[in-house]
Amino acid sequence: MTELLQRESLLKSVVFLRILIGWHFLYEGVIKLFNPDWTAFGYLATAQGPFKSLFIALTGDGVIGWVDTLNTLVLIFVGVTLVLGIFEKWGIIAGMVLLAMYYFAHPPFPWLEQRNVEGSYWFVNKNLIEIGALWVLYHIPTSSYFGLNYLFKKEPKPAKTPQS
User: Fold this and answer.
1) Above 80 in pLDDT, residue 156?
2) Residue 158: left if φ>0, alpha if ψ -120 to 50, beta else—which one?
3) What is this structure's pTM?
4) Quick check: is 163 in a domain?
C-alpha cells in the first residue's frame, strides 16, 4: 500500500512539474505572438561562445523573420503538449532542443562576459535546469496518467481465445 501511495505521489508531482514547464513555454510563446515588436535579433546578435557565428548568422534580413516565427511556434507547441498532456515526448524533445539553443547562444561560462542575460551564473543557468527537468519528464511520461492521452486512451480489448 505504501509503495502505491508513493508512486501516486510521484506521478502527481511529475504531472505538476510538466504543467508548470508547459505553462512557462506556452506563456513565452503567446507573449511573443501578440507582441508585434518582439524579435530574437538582439538576443542572437549578442551571442557568445563556441556557436557565436551560427547565432549571428541567424540575424540576417532573410532569416530573422523565420527564426522569430519558428521560435514562437515551437514555444507554443511545447507549451500545449505539456499542459494538455498530448504528444508529450515530441514536446519534450522540441523543448530540450530550443532550450539548448538558448543555452549555447549565451553560455554561462565564467570566462565570458554575461551580456543580454538575467543573473550571473557559472555553467548552470535556468535553461540548463529546465533541460534537466524535461529530461526527467521524458523518462517519466505522465500523459497516460493525466492529460488528453489519458482521456482518449483506448482500453485494451480482451484477447479472443479459441473455443475448445
Assistant:
1) no
2) beta
3) 0.83
4) no
